[in-house]
Here is the input.
Amino acid sequence: MKLAILGAGNIAKVHAQTVAAHPHIEFAGVADAVPQAAEALAEQYGTQVLDSEALFTDKDIDAVLIASSTATHADFLEKAAEHGKAVLCEKPVALDLERTRRAVTTVQRTSIVCGLGFNRRHDPQYQELKKRLVEGHIGNLETLMIISRDPAPPPVAYIKGSGGLFRDMTIHDFDMARWLLADPIREVHATGSALVNKEIGAAGDIDTAMITLVSEQGRLCHISNSRRAAYGYDQRIEAFGSEGMLRAQNEGETPLLLMREEGELSAPPKHFYLERYMTAYRRELDDFYMAWKEQRDPLATAEDGYQAQRLAEAASRSLHSGQPVRLSDIN
Ligand SMILES: NC(=O)c1ccc[n+]([C@@H]2O[C@H](COP(=O)([O-])OP(=O)(O)OC[C@H]3O[C@@H](n4cnc5c(N)ncnc54)[C@H](O)[C@@H]3O)[C@@H](O)[C@H]2O)c1
Here is the structure.
């Protein structure tokens, strides 16, 4: 597979690492709106700088990885569909639901292989949790708790173009909730505040949220978000069922435990997504490659992107109205 990366920012650098290390993928080049950014990344991996428009008509390129700013994703997805390129697209597909639906439908009208960057589905701990849920180790799943806190908020300039906490950050948790519950969500009730940084509030967003999801079968899911955790990237999941409980824990910088007279001391969680989910990014890329080879859907599809975004839209409406929102009203 000859693969080009669109974007040379934070997440593109993570993907560049996994692409360069994949035994069956050739890193065909990188394109960015800022030429110096593309040049620096291309130089680091010994690849070429490409033009973000021209690469779609380049017959030598089989696949594109969209890791550019959110506002570019829908257009690039449609270009990949038009030119028959396999595509792995970072979340979210677009800032609004209507644009997301259009891009996803365009992709679905073609036979291209299209994956969505819900990397957490590929994390070994969460995959084990999912496997044990499916195998019935905790009986009937009743409640799911997802705790997802970043170590520190991004710059306010990023927040302004991000679509807000639910579309930018909670979207991963909405996807995890859908994937683990495996039971359509009926209702969303969201609450939120700007407690971490008042400027985030002034920009019209929140940095702290608690969301309750209710599934068709009455299963309950609680998502707790913060843009800041003093002790690092806090990523935990607890699934509670009729016969037991499964818990995915934070992974420390080291598993070492220090015990002294005053108590126990363990290392803080791995700092952020780069450290915590590097294995997941590698496995995400490999799943995309295998899907392309076998002409099947990757683990997370464009439709999953749309469905997670419906939840983000419902949460947004619930936050503003103060009322629970039925998902059937969000289309
Ligand atoms: N899955 C994950 O874990 C994860 C983590 C971080 C970011 N993301 C997503 O990845 C995307 C990028 O986030 P980031 O943190 O890397 O942002 P960033 O600002 O660091 O990088 C975005 C890059 O896209 C470039 N760009 C903008 N318009 C372009 C265009 N038309 N053509 C080519 N390049 C263009 C910018 O110049 C910039 O270098 C966002 O949609 C974000 O939600 C996903």
